[in-house]
Amino acid sequence: MTEEINHAYDGGLYAELLQNRSFQDDTSSPKHWSLACAEGAQATLALDRERALNDALPVSLRLEIKAAKPDRRAGVTNNGYWGVPIRPSATYTVSFYARASADFKGPLAVALESADGGRSFARAEVSGVGAEWKRFTATLKTDASVTATAAGRFSLTAGAQGTLWFSLVSLFPATYHDRPNGLRPDLMEKMAAMRPAFLRFPGGNYLEGDFIKERFDWKKMIHSVESRPGHRCCWGYRSNDGMGLLEFLN
Question: Which end of the chain has fewer CB atoms surrounding its CB within 10 Å, N or C?
């Protein structure tokens, strides 16, 4: 039997490492996201319902950078599910949607860092952010010398002024059978070793929800992740529905 309780799917079996990746966990603030500004850099952070990626993801994250330089960056960080796990000799896949105001010039940087931002474990740059929504991807690789920690964080920063909007910011480690939008290898290997005769999904309470509108609606979980709106589950937090019907069948 499986059941989404105590983050058994989001933050557990589902391999996504960032919490609140579509900025819908809280209606008033970007929960689990915070500003990260170097000395001398200035920026503000807010939810934006005027520049949505699509109807399924009606909220974006607006980052207004008022002062920044390539060596004094401003941006946002995500603390994951009780920290972002960092492992040596590991590969991570970053993806996100972004758009920018006309005055923004320069690349964005994505990184895995220590919880205080004092150390960077892996970093990559992406360029080409413009006036329209566009999907970006990057690969982060840690060195063999990195000491494993569960208390890392993810950062997304810029070294130039302007306004940026983000949607569906995602970070994945290696997944079971290397499937995109996949599941955690360590947990899946243990489950496979049990050789279960049948599996129950998605669980009773999670299936029903507290209200009909919060039920597990499988028809909304068979499309690409940017078309999945997510829903509030009955255990007091929001499910992003990345682990939907297709992922379970796989």
Answer: N
Residue 69 carries which DSSP code? B
pLDDT digits (tens, 9 = 90+) for 6-42: 999 999 999 999 999 999 999 999 999 999 999 999 9
- Domain end, chosen from 126, 144, 172, is at 172
For residues 153 and 226, membership in a common domain is answered with no
Note whether residue 196 is domain-resident.
yes
Choose among 145, 172, 144: nearest CA to 21. 172
Tell me 29's DSSP state. Answer: S
Q: What is the pLDDT of residue 168?
A: 98
Distance CA 64, CA 51 (A): 14
Q: What is the DSSP letter of 40?
A: T
pTM above 0.90, yes or no: yes
Decide: 95 and 137 in contact? Cβ < 8 Å: yes
Here the CATH number for the domain that contains residue 63 is 2.60.120.260
The three-state secondary structure class of 91 is strand
C-alpha distances (whole Å) from 95 to each of 79, 99, 249 are: 16, 14, 24
Buried/exposed 213-228: b ≥16 CB within 10 Å, e otherwise = ebebbeebbeeebbeb
